[in-house]
Amino acid sequence: MSFLELKDVNVGFGPASSRTEVLSNINLSVKEKEFVAIIGFSGAGKSTLMSLLAGLQAPSSGSVTMNGKPMQGPGPDRGLMFQNYSLLPWLSVFDNIKLAVDRVFPELSKSEKADKIHHYIKMVKLDHAPDKKPHELSGGMRQRASLARTLSLDPEILLLDEPLSALDALTRSEIQDQILNIWETDKRTVVMITNDVDEAVLMADRIIPLTMGPKATLADEFEVRMERPRDRHTLNDHPEFMRLKSEITQFMMDLNEESKGLRKNDIVPMPDIRPKDFALPTATPRLKNRHSQPGKPKSAA
Ligand SMILES: Nc1ncnc2c1ncn2[C@@H]1O[C@H](COP(=O)(O)OP(=O)(O)OP(=O)(O)O)[C@@H](O)[C@H]1O
Protein backbone atom coordinates (compact mmCIF):
# COMPACT_ATOMS: atom_id res chain seq x y z
CA MET A 1 0.00 0.00 0.00
CA SER A 2 1.13 3.53 -0.72
CA PHE A 3 2.18 5.59 2.23
CA LEU A 4 1.41 8.92 0.62
CA GLU A 5 -0.83 9.16 -2.41
CA LEU A 6 -2.13 11.88 -4.70
CA LYS A 7 -4.85 10.82 -7.13
CA ASP A 8 -6.05 12.90 -10.08
CA VAL A 9 -5.17 16.09 -8.23
CA ASN A 10 -5.81 19.50 -9.74
CA VAL A 11 -5.02 22.84 -8.11
CA GLY A 12 -6.10 26.23 -9.38
CA PHE A 13 -6.25 29.68 -7.84
CA GLY A 14 -8.59 32.63 -8.30
CA PRO A 15 -12.16 33.11 -9.50
CA ALA A 16 -13.41 31.47 -12.71
CA SER A 17 -12.91 34.69 -14.74
CA SER A 18 -9.18 34.90 -13.98
CA ARG A 19 -8.31 31.43 -12.78
CA THR A 20 -4.75 30.05 -12.88
CA GLU A 21 -4.64 26.28 -13.18
CA VAL A 22 -1.31 25.53 -11.54
CA LEU A 23 -1.30 21.72 -11.20
CA SER A 24 -3.21 19.32 -13.39
CA ASN A 25 -3.85 15.60 -13.16
CA ILE A 26 -1.16 14.89 -10.57
CA ASN A 27 -0.77 11.23 -9.62
CA LEU A 28 1.93 10.34 -7.15
CA SER A 29 2.45 7.35 -4.95
CA VAL A 30 5.22 7.32 -2.34
CA LYS A 31 6.15 4.14 -0.48
CA GLU A 32 7.27 4.08 3.12
CA LYS A 33 11.00 4.81 3.62
CA GLU A 34 11.42 5.88 0.03
CA PHE A 35 13.44 8.94 -1.02
CA VAL A 36 11.65 10.69 -3.86
CA ALA A 37 12.94 13.82 -5.58
CA ILE A 38 10.67 16.11 -7.57
CA ILE A 39 12.57 18.22 -10.04
CA GLY A 40 11.15 21.24 -11.80
CA PHE A 41 11.63 24.76 -13.09
CA SER A 42 11.00 27.92 -11.15
CA GLY A 43 7.32 28.85 -11.06
CA ALA A 44 6.16 25.41 -12.26
CA GLY A 45 4.22 24.72 -9.07
CA LYS A 46 6.73 22.81 -6.93
CA SER A 47 5.87 24.64 -3.71
CA THR A 48 2.16 24.24 -4.42
CA LEU A 49 2.78 20.50 -4.74
CA MET A 50 4.71 20.50 -1.47
CA SER A 51 1.92 22.43 0.26
CA LEU A 52 -0.49 19.69 -0.89
CA LEU A 53 1.74 16.98 0.60
CA ALA A 54 2.04 18.95 3.83
CA GLY A 55 -1.72 19.47 4.05
CA LEU A 56 -1.29 23.26 3.89
CA GLN A 57 -3.19 23.39 0.60
CA ALA A 58 -6.30 21.42 -0.31
CA PRO A 59 -6.65 20.21 -3.91
CA SER A 60 -9.34 21.84 -6.10
CA SER A 61 -10.22 18.27 -7.11
CA GLY A 62 -8.77 14.81 -6.57
CA SER A 63 -7.54 13.25 -3.35
CA VAL A 64 -4.49 13.35 -1.07
CA THR A 65 -4.14 10.47 1.37
CA MET A 66 -1.54 9.44 3.92
CA ASN A 67 -1.63 5.92 5.38
CA GLY A 68 -4.90 5.47 3.49
CA LYS A 69 -6.62 8.38 5.26
CA PRO A 70 -7.61 11.65 3.59
CA MET A 71 -5.24 14.43 4.56
CA GLN A 72 -6.89 17.08 6.65
CA GLY A 73 -4.61 20.00 7.36
CA PRO A 74 -0.98 20.02 8.46
CA GLY A 75 0.28 17.74 11.24
CA PRO A 76 3.49 16.85 13.09
CA ASP A 77 3.65 13.54 11.21
CA ARG A 78 4.91 15.61 8.25
CA GLY A 79 8.09 17.61 8.86
CA LEU A 80 8.49 20.49 6.46
CA MET A 81 11.74 22.22 5.71
CA PHE A 82 11.88 25.24 3.42
CA GLN A 83 14.57 27.20 1.66
CA ASN A 84 14.24 29.98 4.23
CA TYR A 85 15.11 28.80 7.66
CA SER A 86 11.99 30.14 9.43
CA LEU A 87 13.77 30.21 12.80
CA LEU A 88 12.53 32.73 15.34
CA PRO A 89 15.32 35.35 15.47
CA TRP A 90 14.97 36.13 19.18
CA LEU A 91 15.35 32.50 20.28
CA SER A 92 18.50 30.40 20.52
CA VAL A 93 18.97 27.20 18.48
CA PHE A 94 17.94 25.19 21.55
CA ASP A 95 14.83 27.31 22.20
CA ASN A 96 13.76 27.27 18.55
CA ILE A 97 13.74 23.47 18.67
CA LYS A 98 12.17 23.47 22.14
CA LEU A 99 9.24 25.48 20.85
CA ALA A 100 8.42 22.67 18.40
CA VAL A 101 9.10 19.89 20.94
CA ASP A 102 6.88 21.58 23.59
CA ARG A 103 4.01 21.65 21.12
CA VAL A 104 4.28 18.13 19.82
CA PHE A 105 5.43 16.30 22.96
CA PRO A 106 3.77 18.11 25.88
CA GLU A 107 3.77 14.87 27.89
CA LEU A 108 7.59 14.68 28.09
CA SER A 109 9.38 15.87 31.24
CA LYS A 110 11.74 18.86 31.09
CA SER A 111 14.83 16.64 31.05
CA GLU A 112 13.38 14.27 28.45
CA LYS A 113 12.70 17.26 26.22
CA ALA A 114 16.22 18.59 26.76
CA ASP A 115 17.69 15.15 25.88
CA LYS A 116 15.64 15.02 22.72
CA ILE A 117 16.66 18.52 21.67
CA HIS A 118 20.36 17.86 22.32
CA HIS A 119 20.11 14.56 20.44
CA TYR A 120 19.03 16.37 17.25
CA ILE A 121 21.40 19.30 17.78
CA LYS A 122 24.21 16.75 17.91
CA MET A 123 22.86 14.87 14.89
CA VAL A 124 23.19 17.99 12.74
CA LYS A 125 26.57 18.83 14.29
CA LEU A 126 25.55 22.00 16.05
CA ASP A 127 26.54 20.86 19.52
CA HIS A 128 28.98 23.75 19.76
CA ALA A 129 26.22 26.32 19.20
CA PRO A 130 22.98 25.48 21.06
CA ASP A 131 22.83 28.92 22.70
CA LYS A 132 23.49 30.93 19.57
CA LYS A 133 20.72 33.06 18.04
CA PRO A 134 20.03 32.73 14.28
CA HIS A 135 21.87 36.01 13.47
CA GLU A 136 25.02 34.53 15.03
CA LEU A 137 24.91 31.51 12.69
CA SER A 138 26.00 31.06 9.09
CA GLY A 139 23.40 30.16 6.45
CA GLY A 140 24.41 26.50 6.60
CA MET A 141 24.21 26.43 10.40
CA ARG A 142 20.75 28.00 10.29
CA GLN A 143 19.61 25.40 7.81
CA ARG A 144 21.01 22.66 10.06
CA ALA A 145 19.16 24.15 13.05
CA SER A 146 16.03 24.13 10.95
CA LEU A 147 16.67 20.48 10.01
CA ALA A 148 17.15 19.58 13.70
CA ARG A 149 13.87 21.29 14.54
CA THR A 150 12.06 19.39 11.78
CA LEU A 151 13.58 16.06 12.88
CA SER A 152 12.77 16.69 16.55
CA LEU A 153 9.06 16.40 15.70
CA ASP A 154 9.72 12.75 14.82
CA PRO A 155 7.80 13.11 11.57
CA GLU A 156 6.88 10.03 9.54
CA ILE A 157 7.79 11.89 6.40
CA LEU A 158 10.25 14.68 5.69
CA LEU A 159 9.09 17.20 3.10
CA LEU A 160 12.08 19.19 1.91
CA ASP A 161 11.23 22.16 -0.31
CA GLU A 162 14.50 23.22 -1.96
CA PRO A 163 16.08 23.35 1.50
CA LEU A 164 19.63 23.75 0.24
CA SER A 165 19.29 26.04 -2.73
CA ALA A 166 20.42 29.19 -0.90
CA LEU A 167 23.66 27.60 0.31
CA ASP A 168 27.13 27.63 -1.18
CA ALA A 169 28.28 24.42 -2.89
CA LEU A 170 30.44 23.22 -0.01
CA THR A 171 27.84 23.72 2.72
CA ARG A 172 25.23 22.27 0.41
CA SER A 173 27.13 19.01 -0.02
CA GLU A 174 27.80 18.83 3.70
CA ILE A 175 24.07 19.08 4.53
CA GLN A 176 23.16 16.70 1.69
CA ASP A 177 25.42 14.13 3.39
CA GLN A 178 23.81 14.80 6.74
CA ILE A 179 20.31 14.38 5.35
CA LEU A 180 21.39 11.14 3.65
CA ASN A 181 23.00 9.84 6.86
CA ILE A 182 19.88 10.61 8.86
CA TRP A 183 17.68 9.05 6.20
CA GLU A 184 19.83 5.91 6.07
CA THR A 185 19.98 5.44 9.86
CA ASP A 186 16.44 6.52 10.71
CA LYS A 187 14.88 5.25 7.45
CA ARG A 188 12.21 7.91 7.14
CA THR A 189 10.24 8.67 4.04
CA VAL A 190 11.53 11.75 2.22
CA VAL A 191 10.06 13.85 -0.57
CA MET A 192 12.50 16.52 -1.69
CA ILE A 193 11.97 19.28 -4.20
CA THR A 194 15.04 20.44 -6.02
CA ASN A 195 16.11 22.10 -9.23
CA ASP A 196 19.53 20.45 -9.12
CA VAL A 197 19.86 17.26 -11.19
CA ASP A 198 23.12 16.16 -9.48
CA GLU A 199 21.54 16.55 -6.06
CA ALA A 200 18.50 14.52 -7.14
CA VAL A 201 20.60 11.66 -8.57
CA LEU A 202 22.92 11.63 -5.57
CA MET A 203 20.11 11.44 -3.03
CA ALA A 204 16.94 9.91 -4.41
CA ASP A 205 15.54 6.46 -5.22
CA ARG A 206 13.26 7.98 -7.85
CA ILE A 207 13.28 11.33 -9.63
CA ILE A 208 10.03 12.71 -11.00
CA PRO A 209 10.06 15.77 -13.23
CA LEU A 210 7.31 18.37 -12.90
CA THR A 211 6.47 19.83 -16.30
CA MET A 212 6.25 23.58 -16.89
CA GLY A 213 3.14 25.42 -15.76
CA PRO A 214 0.39 26.38 -16.08
CA LYS A 215 -1.29 23.00 -15.69
CA ALA A 216 1.98 21.41 -14.65
CA THR A 217 1.88 17.67 -14.22
CA LEU A 218 4.27 14.91 -13.19
CA ALA A 219 6.15 13.28 -16.05
CA ASP A 220 7.44 9.69 -16.15
CA GLU A 221 9.86 8.95 -13.37
CA PHE A 222 13.55 8.11 -13.55
CA GLU A 223 14.56 5.30 -11.24
CA VAL A 224 18.01 5.65 -9.66
CA ARG A 225 19.47 2.15 -9.54
CA MET A 226 22.71 3.05 -7.83
CA GLU A 227 24.00 1.28 -4.75
CA ARG A 228 24.09 3.13 -1.42
CA PRO A 229 25.86 4.77 0.25
CA ARG A 230 26.70 6.84 -2.81
CA ASP A 231 30.09 8.44 -2.81
CA ARG A 232 29.93 11.96 -4.17
CA HIS A 233 33.67 11.95 -4.88
CA THR A 234 33.46 9.10 -7.39
CA LEU A 235 30.00 9.88 -8.80
CA ASN A 236 31.36 11.53 -11.90
CA ASP A 237 33.04 8.23 -12.83
CA HIS A 238 29.87 6.22 -12.25
CA PRO A 239 28.31 5.29 -15.62
CA GLU A 240 24.78 5.13 -14.17
CA PHE A 241 25.16 8.59 -12.62
CA MET A 242 26.39 10.03 -15.90
CA ARG A 243 23.63 8.32 -17.89
CA LEU A 244 20.85 9.51 -15.58
CA LYS A 245 22.26 13.00 -15.29
CA SER A 246 22.45 13.39 -19.04
CA GLU A 247 18.98 11.87 -19.67
CA ILE A 248 17.27 14.00 -17.04
CA THR A 249 19.06 17.17 -18.12
CA GLN A 250 18.07 16.51 -21.73
CA PHE A 251 14.48 15.82 -20.67
CA MET A 252 14.31 19.11 -18.74
CA MET A 253 15.85 21.03 -21.66
CA ASP A 254 13.26 19.52 -24.01
CA LEU A 255 10.48 20.55 -21.59
CA ASN A 256 11.85 24.07 -21.60
CA GLU A 257 12.01 24.20 -25.41
CA GLU A 258 8.53 22.73 -25.68
CA SER A 259 7.09 25.35 -23.36
CA LYS A 260 8.80 28.12 -25.36
CA GLY A 261 7.14 26.70 -28.48
CA LEU A 262 3.76 26.72 -26.75
CA ARG A 263 4.27 30.32 -25.69
CA LYS A 264 5.11 31.26 -29.31
CA ASN A 265 1.76 29.82 -30.38
CA ASP A 266 0.04 32.16 -27.95
CA ILE A 267 1.33 35.18 -29.88
CA VAL A 268 -1.37 36.53 -32.21
CA PRO A 269 0.16 38.00 -35.40
CA MET A 270 -0.92 41.61 -35.93
CA PRO A 271 -1.84 42.94 -39.40
CA ASP A 272 0.84 45.10 -41.02
CA ILE A 273 -0.99 48.41 -40.80
CA ARG A 274 0.94 51.69 -40.93
CA PRO A 275 -0.52 55.12 -40.27
CA LYS A 276 -0.55 57.29 -43.41
CA ASP A 277 1.10 60.27 -41.78
CA PHE A 278 3.28 60.55 -38.71
CA ALA A 279 3.21 64.37 -38.69
CA LEU A 280 1.84 65.97 -35.54
CA PRO A 281 -1.50 67.64 -35.90
CA THR A 282 -1.18 71.42 -36.42
CA ALA A 283 -1.14 73.42 -33.20
CA THR A 284 -4.55 74.20 -31.88
CA PRO A 285 -5.68 77.86 -31.45
CA ARG A 286 -5.66 77.36 -27.69
CA LEU A 287 -1.94 76.42 -27.78
CA LYS A 288 -1.14 79.24 -30.17
CA ASN A 289 -2.74 81.91 -27.99
CA ARG A 290 -1.78 80.41 -24.67
CA HIS A 291 0.04 83.64 -23.60
CA SER A 292 -2.82 85.93 -24.56
CA GLN A 293 -5.11 87.04 -21.76
CA PRO A 294 -8.33 85.17 -21.51
CA GLY A 295 -11.42 87.08 -22.53
CA LYS A 296 -9.35 89.75 -24.43
CA PRO A 297 -9.46 89.13 -28.17
CA LYS A 298 -6.23 90.25 -29.98
CA SER A 299 -8.14 92.42 -32.47
CA ALA A 300 -9.39 94.61 -29.57
CA ALA A 301 -5.85 95.83 -28.62
N1 LIG B 1 -2.12 31.24 -3.29
C1 LIG B 1 -1.93 31.49 -4.58
N2 LIG B 1 -2.79 32.28 -5.27
C2 LIG B 1 -2.60 32.50 -6.58
N3 LIG B 1 -1.59 31.99 -7.33
C3 LIG B 1 -0.72 31.21 -6.69
C4 LIG B 1 -0.83 30.92 -5.29
N4 LIG B 1 0.20 30.08 -4.96
C5 LIG B 1 0.91 29.89 -6.08
N5 LIG B 1 0.37 30.56 -7.11
C6 LIG B 1 0.86 30.57 -8.50
O1 LIG B 1 1.14 29.24 -8.85
C7 LIG B 1 2.28 29.19 -9.69
C8 LIG B 1 3.28 28.20 -9.11
O2 LIG B 1 3.77 28.70 -7.86
P1 LIG B 1 4.76 27.85 -6.95
O3 LIG B 1 5.24 28.75 -5.84
O4 LIG B 1 4.11 26.59 -6.56
O5 LIG B 1 5.94 27.56 -7.97
P2 LIG B 1 7.42 27.03 -7.71
O6 LIG B 1 7.70 26.03 -8.76
O7 LIG B 1 7.57 26.60 -6.29
O8 LIG B 1 8.25 28.36 -7.96
P3 LIG B 1 9.70 28.79 -7.38
O9 LIG B 1 10.66 27.71 -7.78
O10 LIG B 1 9.97 30.07 -8.10
O11 LIG B 1 9.55 28.93 -5.90
C9 LIG B 1 2.81 30.61 -9.79
O12 LIG B 1 2.38 31.14 -11.02
C10 LIG B 1 2.18 31.31 -8.63
O13 LIG B 1 1.97 32.66 -8.93
Automatic annotation (TrEMBL):
It comes from Haloferula rosea. It is found in: Cell membrane. GO terms for cellular component: plasma membrane. The keyword DNA-binding does not apply. This is ABC transporter ATP-binding protein. Residues 4-237 form the ABC transporter domain. GO terms for molecular function: ATP binding; ATP hydrolysis activity; nitrate transmembrane transporter activity. It is a peripheral membrane protein. Pfam families: ABC_tran. Gene3D superfamilies: P-loop containing nucleotide triphosphate hydrolases (3.40.50.300).
